Amino acid sequence: MYQDVIQGVPDYREFLLVDELNESSMELARRHPGVVDLFEIGLSTRGEPIYALRVGSGRLRAVLIGFPHPNEPIGSLTIEYLSRRLAEDEELRRELGFTWYFIKAADIDGARLNEGWFKGGYDNIRHMLNFYRTPGYRQVEWTFPVEYKTLRWNKPSPETRAVMNLIESARPSLVYSLHNSAFGGVYFYVSEPCPSLYPRLQGLAGLEGLPLHLGEPEAPYMKRLDGAVFQLPPMSEIYDFYERHGTEDPAALIVSLPQAEVASAASLQYHLAPVQPIYP
User: Fold this and answer.
1) Among 105, 219, 232, 261, which has the minimal tally of Cβ within 10 Å of its Cβ?
2) Are the C-beta atoms of residues 275 and 166 closer than 8 Å to each other?
3) pLDDT digits (tens, 9 = 90+) for 57-74
4) CATH number of the structural domain spanning residue 68
């Protein structure tokens, strides 16, 4: 069944604009009442609604996040396909056993600023002229609240608050943030060791003829678990690494580094109201 799901991915030749993603979500909710809900989870920095889809009603719950970085649009197409496939395929929903929550565009403002290179075939110059990357202190994954030793961060961006809102409401057993890299081979992060999962992840790249990244991790405090599989460290391990290697105040260094994104779920402290559906 899963091989069939992968083979069913359309041959996408361009990326969808934010308006197209929203329109597609609304249409999916209209076509599949009782299976698909669309609801607002928050507002962006510029005041634009950020939407989430809920598909199915399985015992387990999963949250998938598209556009965690606004220059990484591939995850939005993953969600575009998977949400539709799940809505249409009752057997697949039953086999997987999840209630699925999809955010097609978490950094919606930043995604709009990249739209100049989403259409018309890839062009290096157009890409560079229309490229935007949100600064670290405002990024979706990098501004979750965290407290550890001298580290105190409690300035989540509006987009981060929206994601927090969904997590608080859904209480998921799985959160998957859909990044993509511009160059190099494929690699994966997991929150804890799971050896039976590694060959399956590695095999996904092979299905598409993509090379694996078999070198070192992105940072020295990250553990290599297997070829192209790394463990995402909690913030406490990052802090302790810098402290162990002589950094006077690791907190001052961490808040200026992109690695602040890896604050563990156990470090998050927040409370938000439950979300309300737009299309029941």
Assistant:
1) 219
2) yes
3) 999 999 999 999 999 999
4) 3.40.630
